[in-house]
Amino acid sequence: MRHSGRMYFVGLDLAWGEKNRTGVAVVDADGRLLHVSSVQDDASIEDAVAPYVSGDCLVAIDAPLIVTNPTGYRPCERALNHDFQRFEAGARPAYTGRPEFGDPRGARIATALTLDMNPASSAARRAIEVYPHPATVALFGLPQTLKYKRGAFEVRQRELLQLMTLIEGLDTASPRLRVNHNVSWVELRKRVAAATRPGQLDRDEDPVDAVLCAYVALYSYHRPEDVTLYGDFATGYILTPTLPPDLAPTPRRPAVPAADADELRERVAHVAALLDAAQLGLAEIRRQLEDEQ
């Protein structure tokens, strides 16, 4: 079924490979959540969004779209980290030396959907790269990111429910986001509240992030003066709501000297790559165990 004559805002919390699931969300121009789900392979993603991207649309993808650097951080990641790292919302490095970024999945999907990835474009059908962590800090005034990705199960569950509550509170924001009457969202919240295993949270955090991505697209459309574009089309970019100038992070320990900090950043980049690979493997093992139960 196609929806013609309207603009849609799509969010994809895109897994870097097809073994893990991708969250999908769609919001209309009035902020109504129309669709939220979790799918897996590229064809399933394209099928899920097809009814909403044949006409005017803005697709916000949480995954690198443009990667040209062979090692280290992209310029956009360095710039974003300068503002958001102190809120624990920094980006991990994407570089062509990693197999998943030699041909970025996000760019493949955007190309398959014939979406323009240039953030400066005025095309009617576009895709942009976004990142939920800094978006939560900027939108909700958080002193640090919510810890629903990794860590103790009880902490992850509590933090994910808190994020869902904050998203529901956008019903009174500008622009407005209306999720509370969407049946799939209500069921998603119930599943998160009733979860008893980490794998269940792994499954359900993706659609929540996708809703946030869709809202960032809606927000950037209605409030272009209140978003910041880090980087550029040539070397890669990330678009996010602008960090409030008076927002302070949770107090941290004294800063590391600059020389030591450079060395630590390179070590963090290496460890982050290892963690990403381990996380992909762990999620696959959990999924196999749950399938056997």
Molecular structure report:
By secondary structure, the chain is an alpha/beta fold. It has one domain. Helix content is 45%, strand content 14%. The protein is built from nine helices and seven strands; from the N terminus they run E-E-E-H-E-H-H-H-E-H-H-H-H-E-E-H. The protein has helices spanning 42-53, 75-84, 99-102, 105-112, 132-140, 153-168, 183-194, 198-222, 258-292, and strands at 8-13, 22-28, 33-39, 57-61, 125-129, 227-232, 236-241. The strands form two sheets. A five-stranded mixed β-sheet has the order 3-2-1-4-5. Helix 6 (153-168) runs parallel beside helix 8. It is globular, with a radius of gyration of 18 Å. The model has no long low-confidence stretch (mean pLDDT 91). This is GTP pyrophosphokinase.
Number of helices: 9
> Ranges with pLDDT <50 over ≥5 residues?
none
The CA-CA distance between the termini, in Å, is 36 Å
Considering DSSP H and I runs of 4 or more, what fraction of the residues is helical?
Answer: 40-55%
Total separate domains? 1
Structural class: alpha/beta
Described by the principal axes of the CA atoms, the overall outline is: globular
Integer average pLDDT: 91
User: How many β strands by DSSP?
Assistant: 7
Strand % is: 5-15%
Q: Strands across the major sheet, in which order?
A: 3-2-1-4-5
Task: Characterize the largest beta sheet: strand count, sense, and whether it forms a barrel.
Answer: 5 strands, mixed
Based on CA atoms alone, the radius of gyration comes out at 18 Å
Secondary-structure element order, as H and E? Answer: EEEHEHHHEHHHHEEH
